[in-house]
Amino acid sequence: MMNADLIQKVKEKLDNRQRLFLSPHPLLQRYISCYVFYMKPNPYHSVITTTLSIIPDASGCIVFTCYEDRMQGLLWGPTTEVKKVENSLADRTYFFVEFLPGGLRAFTGMGLAELRDKVVNLEDINKKLSVRIMEALRSTTCLSSFASRMNHLFLQLHEHHSNLNPLILSSMEYILQHEGSVRVKEVAHKHYISERQLQRSFQQHVGINVKKYASIVQFNQTIHRLKRKQDLPLSSLTNASGFFDESHMISTFHKMIGLTPRTFKENMSDFYNDAHKFPCRI
């Protein structure tokens, strides 16, 4: 089980949603969004929903579930569709390593297309990594030491694998700057590469094609905007998020989560996405 002293230190720092975010080392921040603890809520806190829908973010993560007698580590590949998970925070503790798009490849060397939308046991991919994270959770007694151990571990892993392709990094940044409202042809032209070459590199390094990545960026930023300004009219949300028209936005919501924007707005607590991965301008 997780170290009792570490549990106490985490509990002292939890936000009002029972989360604690830790920043990775600066040299890792191109690849890792954050380390996150989800802890047991206050005993008087009731979990509103029994399932939580994870909004696709093309990123992937490592998730450790800490039971009373054991731990389980799972590796989530880049997601392009909603994943429903049991919202069991009332009786379990979780530790996440949240990757940025393409970041997982920097620590595994794997082509990410083969992991797209899959959840696998971490030890089947990298048993040593799984063991070392569990050791840190069991033996570390303070947050600063735990963060240092995670940073050291991932910096060591990164030494054995190549950096993200500069072309891919630049292309992803360009798409993010345009909040996903950009065509594949434009991205390829900007980087002096054919669309075919760009698509091939994206599939290898990010795990999805360029058009899908841009759509995920646009959708996540629309969600962030809606969460920050819940009274924003749909027409204004459409324009601010770069959709052609309201029908285009509604169609995108249906494709991504199977709901209209209005229905999503009424059920936002049932969904989760990481605001650190796709920051948007309001």
From TrEMBL:
State the UniProt keywords alphabetically: DNA-binding
Coiled coil segments of this chain: none
Q: Which residues form the HTH araC/xylS-type domain?
A: 166-267
Q: Which organism is it from?
A: Gracilibacillus dipsosauri
InterPro entries the record matches: DUF6597, HTH_AraC
Q: Which PANTHER family match?
A: ARAC-FAMILY TRANSCRIPTIONAL REGULATOR (PTHR43280), HTH-TYPE TRANSCRIPTIONAL REGULATOR EXSA (PTHR43280:SF2)
GO MF terms here are: DNA-binding transcription factor activity; sequence-specific DNA binding
UniProt cross-references to Pfam families, sorted A to Z = DUF6597, HTH_18
- What's the name of the protein? HTH araC/xylS-type domain-containing protein
